[in-house]
Amino acid sequence: MYIPKSPLVLCIELTSKCNLNCPHCLADADSKGRSLPNDKVISLIDEAQRIGVKELVLGGGEALLYENFFEICEDALSKGLNLSFATNGILVPEVMDSLLNLQKYNESLRIGISLDGHTPELHGHFRPEETFETAVEAIRMLHNANFNVHILCVLNKVNIKTIPQYLNFVSTLNISDIRFIPFMPVGRGMQYRDEMIPPEEFYKVLKSKKELFMNSREGFEKLINRNVYILLLS
Fold first, then answer.
1. For residue 107, how many other CB atoms are within 10 A of its CB?
2. The whole model's pTM is what?
């Protein structure tokens, strides 16, 4: 059995600052959050490279609010690390020029956008409804700029019932990487324990995922032919 000598993936929570205040936030992030010192982050990246880490995940809060975010990205990518981060999409139009400066690392960079439903109401189960269109526009902008974009969907008791419709909608955005994450009662989410998906229901989704995906409309079937992979994380 192969046992790696170092972690393959390193996740760094850069900041607990966020431009939203979602009630389910596992990081308990808000506008008053704190950030790691820049020199500490650089030191962690240097150590990650030294010990052979393959991928760096930059998180928050809202990672794009970190003061030296793009300098950190450039540093990690220039050292040969694969890099990914997730965002709610609000700041994407403002920072597009800075993102475009990272395009030379496109093979090593992945950007995730949070989208919890195919309608403002479903997306707004925990998040502000008005951020639905913002997230969709950010997905379109990044896709049109040829970035590697994936969509993150936090499953709850409501949107888990609409997965086929969600996949139909996502097919229109031409995104080939969708990651379903079950709601976790951590951080502010502790007050919403009743939103947890029962194990048997989540197992049912896992068991029937192929059928759900294949029953999605023709547009999504075209994506399947482009080596789509969908992760349901437990």
1. 9
2. 0.88
Q: Given the structure tokens 């019932």, which residue do they identify?
A: 161
C-alpha closest to that of 36 among 57, 21, 15? 15
Mean pLDDT by 10 residues, the chain (234 residues): 80 97 95 96 96 95 97 97 98 98 97 98 97 98 97 94 90 88 92 89 73 58 46 43
Domains of the chain, earliest start first: 9-232 (3.20.20.70)
